[in-house]
Amino acid sequence: MIKKVFLLFVLITLGIVTISAQKLFPIYLDESKSIDERVANALSLMTVDEKVALCHAQSKFSVKGVARLGIPELWMSDGPHGVRAEFEWNTWQYAGWTNDSCTAFPALTCLAATFNPSLSYIYGKAIGEEARYRKKDVLLGPGVNIYRTPLNGRNFEYLGEDPYLASKMSVPYIWGVQESGVAACLKHFALNNQEKWRSHIDVEVSDRALYEIYLPAFKSAVIEGKVESIMGSYNKFRGQHCCHNELLLNKILKTDWQFDGVVISDWGGTHDSFEAVNYGLDIEMGTHTNGLTSDTNSPYNTFYLADPFLEGIKSGKYSMKLLDDKATRVLKLLFRTALQSKRPLGSLATAEHAAVSRKIAEEGIVLLKNSTDILPLKTNSLKNILVVGENATRMMTKGGGSSELKVKLEVSPLQGLKNAMGADVKITYAMGYASGPSMYGKVVPPKFNTDSLRKAAVELAKQADVVIYVGGLNKNYLQDCEDGDRLQLELPFDQNLLLNQLAEVNPKVVVVLLSGNAVAMPWLNKVPAVVQAWYLGSEAGNAIASVLTGTVNPSGKLPFTFPVKLSDCGAHSFGELSYPGDSIKQVYSDDILVGYRWYDTKKITPLFPFGYGLSYTSFKLGKATIQKSSFTLADTAIVTVPLANIGLLNGKEVIQIYVTDSKASVQRPLKELKGFAKMNLKAGESKTVEIKLPVADWAFYDEKIGNWNLEAGKFILSIGTSSRDISQKIEVAVK
Ligand code: BGC
C-alpha cells in the first residue's frame, strides 16, 4: 500500500495523473480494510442499475457482477451431496462439459446416521473443495428440513427427524464448506416438509412446533455455523410464500438471529415484487425461465427483483435503503468468497475425497437386524452367493431432482461385493424386480417382465449359500425424488412379493435397503438380517461390502423412526388436512410431537426406533454420574458415562441422553434428545465420556410469553443407546 501511495504521489506531482486516488486505488480493493468498509465503498461507486442486477439471476445458476469495477459474477451449484454438473446458460440441459465429474458423497440421511459431527466437518470440507475447484461461490446445501412424514420425496437430502441431531450435524458441514472458500446455502427455509404441492401449500403450524421442531437446525446453522446464505422454500407459511415472508425472513432470520448473509429464492419460488422487495429476499433465482422462451431480450429482466424493482426505485415506490441492504449483502457474500484473495485452492474427484465419502458411508450404514449372526458373512465357507435386486447395479447418483450428480466413479453394490470376495467365491446376479428409468416428473414403466425376473431369482436362490438382496427405493419420481411424494410406506415394484418368495426357498436372505426413507417390512420375521444402506455415493458398493464382510463394524444409528404402518405416524394421524393438506393449506396437527416424540408419547411401538442400530460387538454402559443434582438455567449438566466393549470385535457405539420434564404447565414430549457422543472402543476396552447438556436447552417455547421458558421442577435424564434402549435414569432438579 505504501508503495502504491508513493507511486501515485509521484505521478500526480509529475502531472501525469490527474484522476483521484480514490479511483485508482479504491478502498474496496484495499485488503487492509474490513469487509464492511470495502463493501460500503464498492456500493458507493455503483449505479442503481448495477445494484439491482445483483438482486436477480443472469442465468440458471449465476448472478451478474459489476464488470466495470472488476467485481466478479456470483456462481452457484447444487448441493448437497456433490457438485452438480454444469448447465447451459438458460436451459435445464446439461452443458456436456467433460471436466465436471465429481465425487458423490453419501446422502445427508446417511451423514445424520453416523451421529458423528467430526464426519460432517470432513464432508463439508471435501465438498467445499470440489465446489471451489469448479469455480463455484455458493454450494446449495445442506438441507435441514425436519423429517415429518416418511412419504416426503426429499427426506434423503435432510438430516432426520430430530432438531438437536440436525443442528449438531449441520453446523460442522457448514464450517467445512466455508473454510474451503465457498459459501454454504442452507435450505429450505422453512417448513418445506413435503414435496406434494410444494410450490403453493400454505402451512399452518403452532409457534411452539415452529420454534421447538422446525427452526432449531436453521437457527444453529445461522448463529453457530455462520452460514453465509440461505434458500427460501417454495411453500407458504401463514399466507405468504417463504421466499418473501415477513415473519420468517425479516423478523426471525434477519432481526432475531441477526443473519448478515444473503437470502436466495428457491428456483421459481418468487411470486411478487412488492413482497420480494420488502419481505427479506435478496437474490431471485429461476423465475419463469424454463429455457423455452423466445424473447430476444434476456428474460431475466422480467424477474420480480429486476425491472419491476428498478422502476419502483426510480418512481419512489421502493426506498433506496431496501436496495442498498440487498446489494450490500450480495457484495459481502462476494467479498467472502469470489473476492477473497487468500481463498484456498480446491480439488476435484480426488482419492482423498473418495476416502472421505467411503468413511462416511461405512459409518452411516445401520444394521437393523442380525438374528442368527449371519453377518458378518463367513467368507471362508461361502462358495455361492446370489445377489438379487435392481439396486445392486443401479446408479443412485442419477435422478432424484436437483441433487442429481455426474460422477467420476460410482461403485455399485454388486461390484463392491465382487471387489471384496476372493476369486473362488461364485457371485451370481439376478435382477429380481424392475422399476423404470429416472425421468423428472414422470413415472416410466420398466421394459422387463417382472414375473419372469422374480421367478428367475427365486429359482437361483434355491441353490445359493446366501442371498444378498439389494432393494429399497430409488431416485425415480414418486420415490426418493424431488417434486413429488411417495404414495405408500410399502416397498415399490412388487418387492414384498419377491422377498417373501426368496425367504421361502432360502433361509439365508440378507436384505440391504437403499433408501432415504423408512419402508414397511411385512417380511421382517422371515429374513435373518436387514441393513439400512441409504444412498451412499461414489463408494457405495465398497462401503456396503465392508460392512457385510465385517471389515467395518456397523455403527450407524437411525436418524428417524421406522413405523410399522403409515397410520402410526403423527403427521398421518389427523386426516388429510394434516397430510398432505387440502391442496391449498395444511395444518400440522401433530404439533410438537414429530418423530419419536410422537411414538413415545402416544405409546406406539415402532418397527425400529430413532437412534437404533446394532453392532457386531456388544457394549455395556457403566453407571453414569452427574456433577451435581440441582441446576439453574445458566448451568451445563455434565454427565459422565463409562462404556465397555465386551465383545470380540473393535466397534463404535453412540451414547444418547434424552431429557424429560416430569411436570410442566404445557404438554411436553415424553423425552427429547439433548446430548450424544460416539465412542470408538477396541475389543475388551473401557472408556468414559463426558456429555455436556446446557440446561437452557431443556426449555419449551412458551406461546403465552412468546419466548423460551424453563419451569423449575424435576427433570429426568435417560441414558441409553437408542430412544427405546434406555438403561439408566438420573433425576435432577432445576431451580
Ligand atoms: C430445489 C433446490 C435447488 C434448486 C436449484 C430447486 O428445485 O428445490 O433445492 O437448489 O432447484 O437446482
Kindly report the CATH topology of the largest domain.
TIM Barrel
Strand content is 15-25%
- What share of the residues lie within helices? 25-40%
Strands side by side in the biggest sheet: 1-2-3-4-6-9
How many structural domains can be distinguished in the coordinates? Answer: 5
Class by SSE composition: alpha/beta
Distinct small molecules? beta-D-glucopyranose
Mean pLDDT: 95
Any low-confidence stretches, pLDDT <50, length ≥5? Answer: none
Largest sheet: 6 strands, mixed
How many β-strands, per DSSP? Answer: 29
CATH class of the largest domain: Alpha Beta
Termini Cα gap: 58 Å
Query: How would the global form be characterised?
Result: globular
Under the CATH scheme, the architecture of the largest domain is Alpha-Beta Barrel
Describe this structure in words.
With 735 residues, the chain is an alpha/beta fold. The protein folds into five domains: 1-30, no CATH class; 31-336, TIM Barrel (Alpha-Beta Barrel); 353-558, Glycoside hydrolase family 3 C-terminal domain (Rossmann fold); 561-616, no CATH class; 619-734, Sandwich (Immunoglobulin-like). Helices cover 26% and strands 19% of the residues. It is built from 19 helices and 29 strands. The strands form seven sheets. The protein has a six-stranded mixed beta sheet. The chain has a six-stranded mixed beta sheet with strand order 10-17-16-15-11-12, sandwiched between helices. The protein has a five-stranded mixed beta sheet with strand order 21-29-28-23-24, with no helix packed on it. It starts with a helix and ends with a strand. The model has no long low-confidence stretch (mean pLDDT 95). Beta-D-glucopyranose (BGC) binds at residues 78-79, 140, 187, 266-267, 402. Beta-D-glucopyranose is lined by residues 78-79, 140, 187, 266-267, 402.
